[in-house]
Write a structure and sequence with these properties.
Helix content is 21%, strand content 44%. The protein has helices at 10-23, 60-68, 99-108, and strands at residues 26-33, 36-43, 45-47, 50-56, 70-77, 80-93, 118-131, 141-144, 147-148.
Length: 154
């Protein structure tokens, strides 16, 4: 007989999402536009309320973000995921990024300061969902409109 695990509490899910944002450094970044959907694996660092990554200035990802301003991020695995709907806060030219942030990013990926034609992307999370199986579908939304929720909404 299949035993269904007990879902984590709302507070445990919020803590899991925050921990992933603080400690992980790899994400799937999905964007879309007139050219269709696009999905890439990229490194990231958290910077306060934003997720920061970097890619080529002429990339499909940048074009999509300029066109729609929207992205979806996935952290973790298909069986234990944090899904983030985000908007583009801004594209930041490499010389304008604070040294501390650029150093943190370079520690987990390539260093855009050494690669011509790159730009940093600042993504602002608006909705965060957390689940590790069908048993956690109810209550999976832990952030809405950029605010961590005090209780589940779905």
């Amino acid at each position: 007989m299949l035993t269904i695990p007990t879902p984590r509490t709302h507070d445990e899910r919020v803590a899991a999402a925050r921990l992933r944002l603080e400690q992980e450094f790899q994400m799937w970044l999905s964007t879309g536009g007139r050219a269709g959907p696009h999905l890439i694996p990229v490194a990231f660092v958290e910077d306060g309320d934003t997720i920061v990554t970097a890619t080529g200035t002429g990339s499909r990802t940048v074009r999509h973000l300029q066109e729609t301003g929207r992205a979806r991020v996935a952290l973790g695995t298909t069986s234990d995921v944090v899904m983030i709907d985000a908007t583009l806060d801004r594209l930041v030219p490499v010389p304008e990024v604070a040294t501390e942030l650029a150093d943190r990013f370079a520690a987990v990926s390539h260093d855009p300061r050494q690669m011509p034609g790159y730009v940093y992307l600042r993504l602002l999370p608006h909705r965060v969902q957390v689940w590790n199986g069908f048993h956690e579908f109810p209550g999976r939304t832990v952030m809405l409109e950029g605010e961590w929720l005090p209780h589940p909404v779905d």
